[in-house]
Design goal:
The complex is a heterodimer of chains A (487) and B (95).
Chain A: H1 10-18, H2 24-42, E1 45-48, H3 50-65, E2 76-80, H4 107-114, E3 118-123, H5 157-164, E4 170-174, H6 181-187, E5 190-193, E6 214-218, H7 221-231, H8 249-252, E7 261-265, H9 275-290, E8 294-298, H10 306-321, H11 340-351, H12 354-367, H13 373-394, E9 399-403, H14 419-424, H15 430-435, E10 439-446, E11 452-459, H16 464-477
Parallel strand pairs in A: 2-3, 2-4, 7-8, 7-9
Antiparallel strand pairs in A: 1-3, 4-6, 5-6, 5-10, 9-11, 10-11
Helix pairs in contact in A: 2-3, 5-6, 7-16, 10-12, 10-13
Chain B: H1 5-14, H2 21-38, H3 73-77, E1 83-84, E2 87-88
Antiparallel strand pairs in B: 1-2
Helix pairs in contact in B: 1-2
Classes of the chains: A alpha/beta (487), B mainly alpha (95).
């Protein structure tokens, strides 16, 4: 009955399921068929769990029939292959985990399943979430549905491409330096990175533990609110999880922009912005003013130091987190090791890809004796300055507006041999991770080649409601988020 | 600060990564390039700044010291590349 479930939002589907105009099984079946048709080309999924999804959909239909449904009951979603899912292959897009079937469930997927969501499969990503283009995956590159010669962004590139191409009602991604927002912008979808600590990291395969945060990737801000509601909240299993009440995001969604002050940080509009992005963001500013917001110029002077700061701290944390992959307790082990030393060295050399090795080397170096103070400690101090910039700005404004990326999606292979150029593509997103703030990227226009452009709204700590309602107000007044690629 | 082949080999040893001799040069180049990017931080005075190790200033929570995971030995051992009689198996360590 569903030739094309791709045109519905998650909220639409929820309504139709509740009214019993559609069944979760039919909906799930339609998405699975669409995924099976498109995946050989787009490569958005590493694992498709057809059997598990159909079983979960049938369960959901029973609950819906009994009028016991919640907003997510029976909703088919994709989950980044970085969340441990009990009994389902979880690879983090790495050869070193290519046989790992977790014996436990992450808190995020456990909560989503508890809320009735149907997991269609595990989405592709950069290996260990290290990348900005989804080209470092052991399972192959993901293509941007808007132009298949281009990258979808990363590291949650599979999750982004899946939503953009209608291979799931929504997906879950993770964001360490922009890995939800940057691919969301480059594929024309909505992506929310919550406040650090808002969503539990338990069962998320760690990259940089002081920066990693999970969030929804959706067609609309409303869909993001529905998913965040299920994901957010304190978890005793994550020591950095914030013990604060979770607001009713749907109830606050209609708060609007009247009288709210939006800061425009000058450093994000300096050199390096493509003319198309600059033009589109100017239009968005006008639109936000028409919706009642007041635009206020602000300055975040430490912005330009965020990239070196991040590329010290994140690899340092990664080198320590990835020490666990030793070929002994789980995951890949090299063939016929001569001795224990050979086992460690060869397992890791064969199991990790080039970008992961580069970051382990970099992280090990900056943490090594003699360099710790010069790099790691210095970066931790600059991180404080970056966070203080935001604090000062938020004493004057309620939100900040910035482009999500300096340019639209680049070509596959364009930056793979130049790590520094690749790292610079995160320039507008990583500040937010260093400061631990919530931010949402939403579509706000297209460039001359019909490639999507995104803008981000950054909020105060724990003010997901504020950025969701601002994004929702913008989406009520504009149509950019309703466009989809022709496939 | 500059990186040479000896530094790359030393760091690779610390990181337990087998790096073939032929690849050492490209690591020297790429890491030097990336660390060049880092050196711009030296222009920023930070003497009186408190290092920030986490995005949220929260204290490490404590809980009762009791087993909460239950007995999942078999499930965990099932993930191992090689195990025997409830132990992980590795090549011989002691001569």
């Amino acid at each position: 009955m569903f030739s094309d479930p791709a045109n519905l939002t998650l909220a639409n589907m929820s309504e139709l399921l509740k009214k019993r105009e559609i069944s979760s099984e039919d909906l799930t079946q339609a998405f699975l068929e669409r995924i099976e048709g498109l995946n050989p080309d787009i490569n958005a999924y590493i694992t498709i769990d057809r059997a598990g999804a159909i079983t979960a959909a049938k369960e959901a239909d029973k609950r819906l029939d009994a009028k016991q449904g919640e907003p997510l009951t029976g909703i088919p979603i994709g989950v980044k292959d970085l969340f441990c899912t009990k009994g389902i292959l979880t690879t983090c897009a790495s050869k070193i985990l290519n046989n790992f079937i977790p014996p436990y469930e992450s808190t995020v997927t456990s909560r989503l399943k508890g809320a009735g969501a149907v997991i269609l499969g595990k989405t592709n990503m950069d290996e260990f979430a290290m990348g900005s283009s989804n080209e470092t995956s052991h399972f192959g590159v993901v293509k941007n549905p808007w132009d298949k010669s281009r990258i979808p962004g990363g590291s949650s590139g599979g999750s982004a491409a899946a939503v953009s191409a209608g291979m799931g009602s929504a997906t879950i991604g993770t964001d360490t330096g922009g890995s939800i927002r940057q691919p969301a912008a480059l594929t024309g979808i909505t992506g929310l990175k919550p406040t650090y600590g808002r969503v539990s990291r338990f069962g998320m395969i760690a990259f940089a533990s002081s920066l990693d945060q999970a969030g929804p990737m959706t067609k609309t801000a409303e869909d993001a609110a529905i998913l965040l509601q299920a994901m957010a909240g304190h978890d005793p299993k994550d020591a950095t999880s914030i013990d604060a009440p979770v607001p009713d995001y749907m109830a606050n969604l209609g708060d609007g922009l009247q009288g709210r002050k939006i800061g425009i940080p000058e450093e994000y509009f300096a050199s390096g912005l493509s003319p198309d992005v600059a033009r589109v963001i100017e239009d968005a500013k006008k639109q936000l003013t028409e919706l009642g917001a007041e635009l206020v110029p602000v300055s975040l002077p430490t912005t330009k130091h965020a990239i070196p700061t991040y590329y010290i701290l994140a690899p340092a944390e990664a080198s320590s987190n990835l020490a666990r992959y030793d070929g002994i307790r789980f995951g890949y082990r090299c063939e016929n090791p001569e001795d224990i030393r050979d086992l460690f060295f060869r397992t890791r050399a064969e199991g990790f890809g080039n970008e992961v090795k580069r970051r382990i080397m970099l992280g090990t170096y900056v943490l090594s004796s003699g360099y710790y103070d010069a790099y790691y400690l210095k970066a931790q101090k600059v991180r404080r300055l970056i966070a203080d910039d935001f604090k000062a700005a938020f004493s004057k404004v309620d939100l900040l507006l910035a482009p999500t990326t300096p340019d639209t999606a680049f070509k596959l292979g364009e930056k793979t041999n130049d790590p520094v150029q690749m790292y610079l593509s995160d320039i507008f997103t990583i500040n937010v991770n260093l400061a631990g703030l919530p931010a949402i990227s939403i579509p706000c226009g297209f460039d001359k080649d019909n490639l999507p452009i995104g803008m981000q709204l950054i909020g105060r700590p724990l003010d997901e409601s504020g950025i969701l309602s601002a994004a929702h107000a913008y989406q009520q007044a504009t149509q950019w988020h309703t466009r989809s690629p022709i496939l | 600060m500059s990186i040479n082949a000896d530094t790359v080999k030393h760091v690779a040893n610390l990181a337990r990564l087998n790096i073939p001799e032929a690849e050492v040069g490209s690591y020297v180049d790429q890491l030097s390039q990336i660390l060049g990017l880092m050196d711009q931080l030296n222009s920023l005075p930070t003497d009186d700044i408190e290092p920030m190790s986490h995005a949220v200033d929260i204290l490490m929570p404590a809980r009762e010291d009791e087993v909460v995971n239950g007995d999942n030995r078999e499930a965990l051992l099932a993930c191992a590349p090689d195990s025997e009689q409830s132990h992980f198996r590795v090549p011989k360590i002691i001569e």
